[in-house]
Give the backbone structure.
Amino acid sequence: MTDPTITPDLIAAHGFTPEEYDEVVRILNRAPNYTELGIFSAMWNEHCSYKSSKKWLRTLPTEGPQVICGPGENAGVVDIGDGQAVVFKMESHNHPSYIEPYQGAATGVGGILRDVFTMGARPIAAMNALSFGEPAHPKTRQLVHGVVEGIGGYGNCFGVPTVGGEIRFHPAYNGNCLVNAFAAGLADSDKIFYSAASGVGMPVVYLGAKTGRDGVGGATMASAEFDDTIEDKRPTVQVGDPFTEKRLMEATLELMATGAVISIQDMGAAGLTCSAVEMGDKGGLGVRLDLENVPQREDHMTAYEMMLSESQERMLMVLKPELEAAARAVFEKWDLDFAIVGETIAEDRFLIMHNGEVKADLPLSKLASTAPEYDRPWVPTEPLPEMDAVPEIDPIDGLRALLASPNYCSRAWAYQQYDSQVMADTVLAPGLGAGVVRVHGTDKALAFTSDVTPRYVKANPVEGGKQAVAEAYRNLVAVGAKPLATTDNMNFGNPEKPEIMGQFVGAIQGIGAACLALDMPIVSGNVSLYNETDGQGILPTPTIGAVGLLDSLDDLISGVARDGHVLLLVGETGGHLGQSALLAEVFNREDGDAPAVDLETEKRNGDFILAQREWIGACTDLSDGGLALAAFEIAQAAGCGVILDVADTATLFGEDQGRYLISTSFDKAEALMIAAGRAGVYVTSVGKVGGDTIWFGKSGAPLSDLSENWADSFAEAFA
């Protein structure tokens, strides 16, 4: 097959600007051939190079005594004591999931699981954060069904519990859904595996499934906006096989135990190209590949196709040559391919051979660590005008509106399609602020959550970025877990637009400040830009995944409210309704500023909750829907009514930050208030638990009616 001629149209189709292509020619001192153009395209696109975001990502706090490995590897690694570590990361599969919902979401799960077990960790938990367009949009129903089925289909077959996540709907996602996948695993802290190659003349080994033509150009597709040619991009979506992935995990972990692994890398975005280049670059070495040795499932594959295929369930390893036989035996036992496809070389060179012919000969270091880096022009987000007054409403009518909204009703229809109990260590399943999984064989547990409020970030990127971290922090604290660290998934529109880049910069500033103040360093993450269709961008959605530790399950806050319990509100209420759920769902308004986040107060209030765990019956943090929705959550979990002493709209539905709602006995409530006074924490009694009705002042409704509304709304919209 003859390679196509390099034309300006072909260059543009590979995502290059004219200036970037000129730089490629300058580096090579010649024009690239077709395969070389594809390799540069894969490594220099936004998805792999982070060329628009690197400058700002470097400002994030990434270190702490608990951090074993921060950003730069397949996943972050955090110490949890007793010689153990939790390994975790969140990553996007947005564009593929919009084009092909089932396979896009399924392979998103598969990719994030490989990131974890590539580090030597056995996955123990998964989450997902999903953003869809408005429910009435003609494509939303198909996307919701396909994505949820894809997540369940892959995760359930692989055998990892899905313990948490979030789903939102907004017209801004009509043309570009978001599918962010999170996975966490456990490893011995002294047996973490990294990707940097070492040693000259070491065999480079291909592991796992065979290479096909699926996913060719996927990383480049993920680095561009959508337009009316979207259906043409369907072949760039990968096809997953969870049963092969399960075998690959078992084989990889068994292989690691043999001592044969020098370095190992998942084949994710840009496939063989990215994995080989990253291993060589991190180790300061070159790599030679012989493509005729690559296991292939299709005939007559070209060098271009093999180098850019994103076929799933594949790994690349640098092997200790004396242990080749033992390593090969492991993969043959698991009926997976094991092929020596090249070697490490001393020169700064990425040499691609196919049947004795040179298909690419490139300076390897120029492909990765010296890829383009841009300081994009940006403008701060202008403060929004002062919002109009919000009318008083019947508070129960306001609550009904929230409970009927797909944004705030029960998501059981979705998460019941995910296996949350496999491995038998799940302590708290989906449906709460955080999922909790026991550390197998110990009394310890890990808590997992993800959060962001995109309308806050759009209104005020700095405060919205802070709030995403702060709410994740509160979700962990509310189950009794000490927050450890975070991972981020930065979903934004086109960074070439200064206002979009300004949203990104502001969010990074807010996230960084909050991670520092709350001692939750960022240890891994992903940036997904160009989430736009026909020039219409998504809401800025910097999803924060967070992990917390319970030293003992005795520390778990998982009780339910009981008849006669007192309801205590931790944190001060100012009645902030700007950008609130009530404003959006009842008044169809998105005005006002995001609520301010006082990080010192967040930390003080969180420390208070953790210090007083033994006095707390039930606990939930206040976020969307404010006190009203938090009170319903307490009542719904207990199957018991609540009576709040307040009825005004701002107090019930305001979304001031740093707050928790606690249910406890009268005696313990008194002790908590005394302790709060000593700690300088604001706590006030707002009502009690009892009966079978929710009362906000003199406005009430039977809990059973409200619960039915809440429980059925999602299924009615999408089942």
Q: What stands out?
A: The radius of gyration is 26 Å.
